[in-house]
Write a structure and sequence with these properties.
The chain is of the alpha/beta class. The protein is built from 13 helices and 11 strands. Helix 3 runs parallel beside helix 8.
């Protein structure tokens, strides 16, 4: 039987000085061209997710928060386009550090020995001054002392909200650029399953081991909150950027409700090494983490390029 899709002609992109992001994405639907076609499909899925799903999860690794992509994620949280974040602890590190001190542009070819002497840490082509983390350490001590006086057991998502509340109370000039601030403001939980693997978590450990051993950061409370959100959802969806623990924690919980109903995945990893980062979404169907009927697409490419286009199309 002849495939009707073969009747769809490949069209050229037509861009001028008034072309909007949405118009560009709509044109990509007809180009039939590699990643651009996938991006257009993802835009449709993401639009449907925002309209039909009562649970919309955004997962990502922390590295992109050191870049301008932070602003895209912040806007999604600010406009309540998502209901929960699942990420790595570096998101708290970078987001809070950048609220207090600037990061700077660097180069992949920079001399790392020289950077070390200058007190600069290189993440790809982004430079992170040591002073950024000094401010993080100083303010976390204040936040944790306040938390300790309030109660002894905290879920990581509650502690993130406490950090956002602190930014508001101290009225930091750049607080509204912060993802953590908007998570607190809109009461959107940020789940960090590897909460101790970074500067934010290290400060919590330092606080605990120095005369505060009755202070407890409970991952169980995080999982209970996430479990309640997953089990109570009628339609569940996820926009996942990169793999690792943030992706796995997102899809792991979905198997207990029969899988995700919608999913978009952006990755630069290869499939042939068997890693979760390289696994395409359709593999999750075999695990029961994505419904066979789910609308889904995997896009290969750099999230710092693709995410602004994708999110820009739905916000526009």
């Amino acid at each position: 039987m002849k495939n009707e899709r073969n009747k769809e002609k490949v069209a050229d992109l037509n861009i001028n000085n008034s072309t909007t992001i949405m118009e560009l994405i709509n044109q990509m639907k007809k180009t039939g061209g590699f990643t651009s076609k996938k991006l257009a499909v993802a835009s449709d899925i993401l639009t449907e997710m925002t309209e039909k799903c009562d649970l919309r999860i955004l997962s990502f690794p922390s590295c992109i928060i050191s870049t301008g992509t932070r602003g895209i994620i912040k806007e999604m949280v600010k406009q309540k386009k998502i209901d929960a974040i699942i990420t790595t602890v570096g998101t708290a590190d970078h987001d809070l550090a950048r609220t207090w001190k600037d990061y700077y542009a660097g180069n992949f070819e920079d001399d790392d020995v020289e950077l070390r002497k200058r007190g600069l840490n290189r993440e790809g082509n982004v430079l992170v001054p040591n002073e950024s983390y000094w401010f993080l350490e100083k303010n976390m001590k204040t936040i944790l002392e306040e938390c300790y006086q309030e109660k002894k057991v905290w879920a990581p998502y509650e502690l993130i909200w406490k950090c956002g509340e602190f930014l508001n109370k101290e009225n930091f000039p750049k607080k509204e650029e912060s993802i953590v601030y908007w998570c607190w403001k809109n009461q959107i939980p940020m789940f960090i399953p590897g909460a101790l693997d970074g500067a934010w978590g290290y400060q919590i450990w330092l606080f605990w081991q120095y005369k505060h051993t009755d202070f407890n950061l409970s991952l169980f409370l995080d999982d209970q909150k996430l479990s309640d959100m997953v089990y109570n959802s009628k339609k569940s969806s996820a926009l996942m950027i990169g793999g690792g623990i943030s992706k796995h924690h997102t899809i792991w919980w979905q198997q207990f409700r029969g899988g995700l109903d919608y999913a978009v995945y952006i990755t630069t990893a290869v499939e042939w090494d068997g890693s979760l980062s390289g696994a395409r979404l359709k593999e999750a169907i075999s695990w029961g983490k994505l419904k066979p009927s789910a609308k889904h697409v995997t896009i290969e490419g750099d999230a710092t390029v693709l995410l602004p286009l994708l999110v820009g199309s739905i916000l526009e």
